[in-house]
Amino acid sequence: MSQRIYLTDPTCEQFAGKVVSRREEDGSWWLELDRTCFYVEGGGQPSDAGTIGAANVLRVFEHEGHVWHVVDRPVPENDVIGRVNMAVRHDYSVQHTGQHILSQAYWRLFAAATSSFHLTDKSVSIDLSLGDMTEAQIAAGEALANEIIRRGLPIGTSFHDDRETLPEELRKSPVVKGPIRLVSVGDFDMCPCGGTHVATTAEVQFIKVLATERTRGRTRVIFVCGERALREYARRIASDNVLAQMLSAPYAEQPEAIERLLTTEKELRRERTRLSRELMEYRAVSASPHSTFTWGTYFEFPEWNEEMDDAKYLLAAISRMRRPAVAVLVMPQDPARIFISSSSALEAGAMLRQLYAKYDGKGGGNAHAAQGSLPAAQVQDALETLRETLSQ
Ligand SMILES: [Zn+2]
Question: Domain 3-84 - what CATH class?
Answer without folding.
Answer: mainly beta
